[in-house]
Design brief:
Strand 5, helix 6 and strand 6 form a beta-alpha-beta unit. 47% of the residues lie in helices and 19% in strands. The chain has 2 domains: 207 residues, Tubulin/FtsZ, GTPase domain (Rossmann fold, 3-Layer(aba) Sandwich), CATH 3.40.50; 90 residues, 60s Ribosomal Protein L30, Chain: A (2-Layer Sandwich), CATH 3.30.1330. The protein is α/β, with parallel strands linked by helices. Helix 1 crosses helix 8. Bound molecules: guanosine-5'-diphosphate. Guanosine-5'-diphosphate (GDP) binds next to helix 1, helix 5 and helix 8.
Length: 368
């Protein structure tokens, strides 16, 4: 049995963590968090951390003892410098909470890259954990809608850079912009995206801790994640009716199945393909031919099969990326955003002229 730690930082991280707890505990209503047992084999511990108490209160499926409030007004207002100070002030409290839960085999830290709290806490927390613990730690990072504004873009660019330097064992990307085809208003898009991420992560945990027909384990996952440029993403497809397993695999590898826009055959460096479902769908010839096709493009592909009687096939793919065109695009617009903010600050600084004008009447009083 694996001991797994999942931490959600900031609003986005908290909400995705809550979606994971909802999936893991089952939807038995508001009291699920007090009553039910996790349906997963692993010992999964979850912690939500936030500066904004309202974001923590909003959680429905995460136990109160699993929520850490690091108070700072109503959040840090998308300011990563403030966020870093608040983390430093609360580091002892956070680390003690994690330490008291014992040892783990693997940890995931979930955050948006672009807000204030999660994007500043996550790299610092991972750095702290890597200094004290020897289990692998993966960041699961949500990228912003590109039209959300210059501060968010700037934060995303710096957060990812900080994460790469934090000692994290890998960064799994999910992209709001790419996933917004979920449709509906922002709230329902968020919920849809959060559910997608939760489902994929729980499938992965299930696979790492399963008695499989063909085995993939935490060791294989670590090897996959250590390939490429330290970046990864996850694809998934669930057959809604009977369909050949090769089509399910193709769909799980297609850009539409991914959490981040990528061409698996062009950009992946290593991969893991996990199939779940009734044995009758698992044609070994079809599976082998799909795996061979992918491995001829990307090199190493690990495969695992979890047999679940009477279940339609589902496929999860983990890909580490050698290159990421979409990330280069994001950085190109982030650079524009950083320049824009810098120029604006310079303009505001030069407005000190205005202060000079005001200062001319310092010490004077009006006479009537
Ligand atoms: P923080 O609380 O200061 O860490 O900031 P947030 O987590 O709210 O970060 C803002 C970014 O997260 C923006 O890019 C939002 O689009 C995104 N975001 C906020 N809430 C959610 C959510 O529930 N799901 C998803 N997918 N993205 C979210």
């Amino acid at each position: 049995m694996l001991n797994i730690l999942i931490i959600g930082n900031g609003q986005c991280g908290n909400r995705i963590l809550d979606a994971i707890n909802r999936e893991a505990f089952g939807t038995k209503g508001r009291f699920a968090k007090y009553l039910s047992q996790q349906k997963y084999k692993s010992n999964v511990q979850t912690i939500a951390i936030n500066t904004a108490v309202n974001d923590l209160k909003e959680m429905k499926f995460t136990k109160a003892k699993d929520r850490i409030h690091t108070p700072h007004l109503h959040g840090v207002g998308a300011n990563r410098n403030v966020g870093k100070h608040v983390f430093e002030d609360n580091k002892t409290l956070i680390m003690k909470n994690i330490h008291d839960r014992g040892d783990f085999d693997v940890a995931f830290v979930i955050t948006s890259a672009s807000g204030g709290t999660g994007s500043s806490f996550t790299p610092m927390l991972i750095r702290e954990l890597k200094e004290k613990c020897d289990y692998p730690i993966y960041a699961l990072v949500v990228l912003p809608f590109r039209e959300e504004g210059t501060l968010y873009l700037q934060n995303a660019a710096f957060c990812l850079k900080d994460l790469r330097e934090s000692g994290a064992d890998g960064i799994i990307l999910a992209d709001n912009q790419f996933l917004k085809q979920m449709g509906g208003n922002v709230e329902s898009a968020y919920n849809g995206i959060n559910d997608m991420i939760a489902k994929r992560l729980l499938f992965l945990l299930d696979a790492l801790d399963s008695e499989m027909m063909m085995v993939t384990d935490l060791g294989d996952f670590k090897t996959v994640m250590s390939g490429g440029a330290g970046l990864a993403t996850i694809g998934f497809y669930e057959a809604e009716a009977e369909m050949p397993i090769k089509s399910v695999i193709k769909n799980a590898l297609s850009p539409e199945g991914m959490l981040f826009s990528t061409d698996a055959y062009q950009e992946a460096s290593r991969s893991m393909i996990i199939l779940k479902g009734d044995r009758k769908y698992m044609s070994i010839d079809e599976v082998s031919s799909e795996v061979e096709q992918l491995s001829s493009c990307v090199g190493q592909v690990f495969k695992g099969i979890i047999v679940r009687n009477d279940e339609l096939p589902q496929v999860l793919t983990v890909l580490t990326l050698e290159s990421a065109m979409e990330l280069e695009n994001l950085y190109a617009i982030a650079v524009e955003a950083i320049n824009y903010e810098r120029q604006k600050k310079e303009r505001v600084d030069s407005m000190k002229e205005v202060d000079r004008a005001f200062s001319q009447i310092n010490g004077m009083d009006p006479s009537y």
